[in-house]
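Entry 0007
Protein: Cobalamin B12-binding domain protein
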Amino acid sequence: MIDLNASAQAMSDLDEGAINEVVDKVMAKADADAAQELIKAFQQGMTKVGERFDSGEYFIGDLIFAGEILQAAMDKLKPALSGDALEKRAKIVLATVEGDLHDIGKNIFRTMAEASGFEVFDLGIDVPVKIIVDKVKEVNPEIVGLSGVLTLALDSMRETVDALKAEGLRNDLKVIIGGVPVNENVCQRVGADDFSTNAADGVKICQRWVG
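Output (structure tokens):
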């Protein structure tokens, strides 16, 4: 039997050794149900990681490390999962907007969002408006996440939202922006639905949107 509470705690504690050990146990049996339950436990652990970051106990480096541990664990577990074992709650198209090359915050958000059950289409960095719009047309997501650290990225965010409106894609689409320079005023100016300056809060916003 796998101790799911201990597994959640291991993720919260960033105990890579314990996580690898329990993942190996599940993979040895190739048990899809156990793999799914373990992922849920890791999701709970990542929620605690976010809480520890909010409280000041963890720092940005800890979030990055947590994301790396989780991604490695999920990559190992995927072969044991049946085709529909990872039920996706909603789709997110994610990008660091044109003119910005920063991706640490975006990558942390992606990992935490995937751990929460979202299907994330990460387009990378310095992504032109047209690429984002085309991807939205292709996959019909519920949410678009736009990331940027540089102040010039804010113009790209606004241009992206304007383009989504022009293409008639904005009505049923939620847009969240993230990065150091964003705030309530920036959010309104860009035309986004909400903003976040850390990945954990951003994922919580997205969870509220999809119920």
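Curator remark: The chain has two domains: 4-85, 88-210. The first strand starts at residue 91 and ends at 96.
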